[in-house]
């Protein structure tokens, strides 16, 4: 079985983004939606694009849905349709089902059905936005277990011009600097443009520069404390 074979059911904004990104990374993607216009708009971007009712078992079987080892159910507002689609996929023996949930109650119901991979894009966006508003220096983050994360932050102003060894990130702040993204001026089509590039693995002599982006690993509270002290 091709591990890169995906079916995405529900081609709204969320489902479309998933299908397009999977396809651009070389995956074999089938897009499914009951709306012909949505399917028509994505048909040239994915391997297969099919207009059908995903709550119709015969319709799903007609597209050999069981040959797809990963099915992503991204149906939007109609939770009843989403549940029925998931129930059919479980009945057909699909091994890996990833489903969208809007809110805590929907998540609980899906978990009761045995779905363990649940996407809550609205909740995630809300959490991310709140975190960025509270921490303006933070650009992006990857949450890890036990309150750890990998976080991209704008270099705090008080460490700019200072060698990494003198900042003493590990002993003083309990943080590890994974790498630095640094802005370089490049000429593109005759126009000077600032482009950020990874500088590699920093050593103790590396000087932190203004406009650097630091990619740090550590506990969330330690990263936040480091930013607060040095800004």
What's the short version?
The chain is built from nine helices and eleven strands. It has 231 residues and is α/β, with parallel strands linked by helices. The protein has two domains: 5-124, 3-Layer(aba) Sandwich (Rossmann fold); 135-230, Regulator of K+ conductance, C-terminal domain (Alpha-Beta Plaits), CATH 3.30.70.1450.
What features would you describe in this structure?
- It is a single chain.
- With 231 residues, the protein is of the alpha/beta class.
- It has two domains: 120 residues, Rossmann fold (3-Layer(aba) Sandwich); 96 residues, Regulator of K+ conductance, C-terminal domain (Alpha-Beta Plaits).
- 35% of the residues lie in helices and 30% in strands.
- The chain is built from nine helices and eleven strands.
- The strands form two sheets. The protein has a six-stranded parallel sheet with strand order 3-2-1-4-5-6, sandwiched between helices.
- The radius of gyration is 23 Å and the shape is elongated.
- The fraction of residues in strands falls at 25-35%
User: Average pLDDT value?
Assistant: 91
CA radius of gyration is: 23 Å
Unreliable residue runs: none
| Total beta strands | 11
Q: Which of globular, elongated, flat, extended, rod-shaped describes the shape?
A: elongated
How far do the termini sit from each other? 52 Å
Q: Kindly report the name of the CATH homologous superfamily of the largest domain.
A: NAD(P)-binding Rossmann-like Domain
Name of the CATH architecture of the largest domain = 3-Layer(aba) Sandwich
Fraction of helical residues: 25-40%
Order of helices and strands: EHEHEHEHEHEHEEHHEEEH
- Structural class by sheet pairing and helices: alpha/beta
| Largest beta-sheet characterization | 6 strands, parallel
Query: How many individual helices?
Result: 9
Integer count of domains: 2
**CATH third-tier fold name of the largest domain:** Rossmann fold
CATH top level of the largest domain?
A: Alpha Beta
Q: Order of strands in the sheet with the most strands?
A: 3-2-1-4-5-6
């Amino acid at each position: 079985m091709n591990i890169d074979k995906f079916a995405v059911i529900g081609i709204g904004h969320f489902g479309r983004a998933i299908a397009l990104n999977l396809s651009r990374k070389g995956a074999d993607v089938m897009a499914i939606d009951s709306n012909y216009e949505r399917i028509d708009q994505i048909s040239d971007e994915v391997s297969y694009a099919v207009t059908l009712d995903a709550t119709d078992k015969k319709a799903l079987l007609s597209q050999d849905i069981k040959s797809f080892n990963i099915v992503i159910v991204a149906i939007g507002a109609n939770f009843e349709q989403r549940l029925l689609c998931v129930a059919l996929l479980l009945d057909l023996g699909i091994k890996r089902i990833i489903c969208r949930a809007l809110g805590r109650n929907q998540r609980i119901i899906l978990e009761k059905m045995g779905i363990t991979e649940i996407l809550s894009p609205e909740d995630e966006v809300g959490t991310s936005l709140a975190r960025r508003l509270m921490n303006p220096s933070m650009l992006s983050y990857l949450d890890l277990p036990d309150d750890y994360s990998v976080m991209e932050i704008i270099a705090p102003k008080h460490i700019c011009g200072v060698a990494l060894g003198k900042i003493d990130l590990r002993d003083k702040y309990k943080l590890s600097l994974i790498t630095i993204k640094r802005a370089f001026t490049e000429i593109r089509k005759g126009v000077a443009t600032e482009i950020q590039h990874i500088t590699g693995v920093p050593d103790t002599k590396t000087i932190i520069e203004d406009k650097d982006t630091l990619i740090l690993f550590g506990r969330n509270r330690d990263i936040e404390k480091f930013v607060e002290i040095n800004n």
